[in-house]
Amino acid sequence: MSADSTRSDTRGRLWRSRWAAIGAAVAVTFGAGGLAAVNAAGGQDSTTVLTDPVRVLDSRDPLNVGLAGPFASQVSQKLQITGSIPTTSGTKTVVPTGATGVLLNVTAVAPTANGFVSIRPGDATGTPSTSSLNVSAGQIVPNAVLVALPTSGANAGTIEITYDAFGVPGPTTDILIDVVGHTTDAKLKALEASLETKVDAADLLFATIAPANSSPAIVRGSGVTNVEKTGVGWRVRFNRDVSECTWMATYGQPGNTTVDARWATTRGTGVANEVFVVIWDSAGASTDGNGFHISVLCPEGAPALTSSPSEVPAGDEQIDG
C-alpha cells in the first residue's frame, strides 16, 4: 500500500469520526435552518446518513474527475452530486436523487494566490459572500462543509464551487471533494404519507341535529346528507357506507348546558349509509327531545358507498330493537 493511499484512508477515518461526533447536531441544525457558512435548506427537517468517503471531484491533471481544473478565481462551476456520477473509483451513485444536503470534505490544493473557496447550493444566485475554507498560496487546505442541495429544477442535486482570490481574476487552484454523507427527508416523507393515508382511510363523519322533532335540521356536519323523523327516532343518512363503522350519539344541542337525564342510542336500519337514533328519557321511554349529536368513525378498510342507497320507507316507521 502506498503512502498516499495510507494517508487517504487515515484521513477518511478521521473525517468519519468527526462527522459521527456531530451527526445528531447536524440533523437538528440543518432542520432548523442550516449552518451559517452555507445556505442550507430552508427549515426542512432531514435525517443524516454517514457513508464511507468517496471522491467526486479531483480537478488535478490528468485526473479531472467531476470537473476539469484548475479553478480560476471568481469563475463558478457546478458539480452534480446526486444520482450516477463519475468518481475516482468509477461511475456510481454516492448520494441518492432527492437528497436535501451533502456532507463534504473539501480540499484546496496549491492555490496560486491567497483567497477562499465557497461551496453553495447549485441554485444559488449572485456573487458568493461566504467562505467554506480560507486558502493560502501554495498550501493544501481541507475543511468539512455541509451544504444544501436543490431537489427540483435545472440545478437539482448540484453544488456551486467558486475560488476567489479576494477579487483578483487570474489566480488558480485545484480542488478535491470527498462525499462523507448526506441528509434526506425521504423517511420523513414516507412516514407523513403513511400517516396521511391512514387518517384519510379512517373517516370521521359527524352531525349536530336540532331541533329533533318532526322537522329536524342539520346544524353542522361532515358527510351527512339527510336526517328524517321516523316513528320515535330519526334516520341519519351519510354519503358513504357506514355499516362497518362505529356509531355514537349523545343527547343535546349547541349551547345546551342543562343537565338532563335523557340519552341517545344508535342502531342500523338495514340501509348501508344510515344510522337510526333514538332518545330516551329517565324512565326509559323514547322521547322526541331537543336535539342530538352523532359521530361515525369508519376505520381503514371499511367499505365506501359504491351504489345508490335503498329508498327510505315512507311514513312513520318504528324500528324496534
Notes on the protein architecture:
- The chain is built from two helices and 20 strands.
- The protein has 321 residues and is mainly beta.
- The protein folds into two domains: 3-188, no CATH class; 198-298.
- The model is unreliable at 1-43 and 307-321 (pLDDT under 50).
Strand content: 35-45%
The parts where pLDDT drops under 50 for at least 5 residues are 1-43, 307-321
H/E element order:
HEEEEEEEEEEEHEEEEEEEEE
- Number of DSSP-assigned strands: 20
Mean pLDDT: 79
Overall 3D form:
rod-shaped
Radius of gyration: 33 Å
Domain module tally? 2
> In which range does the helix fraction lie?
10-25%
Keywords:
321 residues, mainly beta, 2 domains, five-stranded antiparallel sheet, 2 helices, 20 strands, 14% helix, rod-shaped, disordered N terminus, disordered C terminus
Brief summary of the model shown:
By secondary structure, the chain is mainly β.
What does the secondary structure layout of this molecule look like, with pairings?
Blueprint: H1 3-32, E1 47-58, E2 71-72, E3 77-80, E4 84-85, E5 92-93, E6 101-109, E7 115-121, E8 133-135, E9 140-148, E10 158-164, E11 172-184, H2 186-201, E12 203-209, E13 218-222, E14 224-230, E15 233-238, E16 246-251, E17 263-267, E18 274-280, E19 286-287, E20 292-298
Antiparallel strand pairs: 1-11, 2-11, 3-10, 4-5, 6-9, 6-11, 7-8, 7-10, 12-13, 12-20, 14-15, 15-18, 16-20, 17-18, 18-19
